[in-house]
Amino acid sequence: MRNDGRLSRMLHVLIHLARHDGPMTSETIARMLDTNPVLIRRTMSGLREAGYVRSEKGHGGGWAIATDLNAVTLLDVHRAVGGPRLFAIGVENANPGCQVASVVNEALDSALQEAEQLLIARLRSISLAELARTFDARCGDLVPR
């Protein structure tokens, strides 16, 4: 099963936008991510609807940051890009009358709910500003502002 990379890809884009002078076109972003500009526009539209980016049409237009990076968390971005369920594994109810299935499903359901709450809390605790600061600390001298 292929991983859904929308969150990591859009976090990548948002940090680039935050460190780029002026808007970036969908075509530029698509080349950077080795994908199609239509997919970029479709995914970025969720970020625009959430108010995290803005788009400008015409010559010199493109996508630009429209929010304070301190105010947006990884969980916010996950939700804005229509991220899938956090876990692809789940329970099977092929035979709901089976007591073995019932015991297994209860244990898995409980563990998955607990893990999901931990992951949600962690994603909520990391802001885009924190990612940008970490990037700056590692590569700040190499990247033009």
UniProtKB/TrEMBL annotation:
Gene3D superfamilies: Winged helix-like DNA-binding domain superfamily/Winged helix DNA-binding domain (1.10.10.10). InterPro entries: Tscrpt_reg_Rrf2 (IPR000944), WH-like_DNA-bd_sf (IPR036388), WH_DNA-bd_sf (IPR036390). It comes from the Bacteria. PANTHER family: HTH-TYPE TRANSCRIPTIONAL REGULATOR YWGB-RELATED, WINGED HELIX-TURN-HELIX TRANSCRIPTIONAL REGULATOR, RRF2 FAMILY. This is Transcriptional regulator. It comes from Blastomonas fulva.
